[in-house]
Amino acid sequence: MCKGSGEHGGSSSAGVFIGGFILGGIVAGTLGCVYAPQISKALAGADRKDLMRKLPKFIYDEEKALEKTRQVLADKIAQLNSAIDEVSAQLHPEDAPNGTAVTSDEIQAST
Fold first, then answer.
1. Do the beta carbons of residue 16 and residue 24 sit within 8 Å?
2. Which residues fall within 8 angstroms of residue 54, CB to CB, at 6 or more apart?
3. Which residues, including other chains, have CB under 8 Å from residue 46's CB and lie 6 or more apart?
4. What is the SS3 assignment for 44-67?
5. Residue 100 above 80 pLDDT?
6. 0.85 cut: is pTM over it?
7. What mean pLDDT comes out for the span 9-29?
């Protein structure tokens, strides 16, 4: 007679999972111990540009894209600051043209 797989199927699959988990941990730990010294030597002896060249291509490209995005944002911030300064100068033409800030106390004292 055949027994249904439902009776002992749960315990054997749990055992397989635990065995695979332990085996995977052993393999990953071993690889980490083997490659960690090489990685730490590469990181310690390399400056930033050399390190970026040693990284996989997609990480290096991502770093370039991030730097380009930073530059674009910095340019846009500079444009916004310039526009704010222009609008502020149009709204308050009596302010000093050299860009010095005038506090509200100085405005009240002058009136």
1. no
2. 42, 46
3. 54
4. HHCCHHHHHHHCCHHHHHHHHHHH
5. no
6. no
7. 87
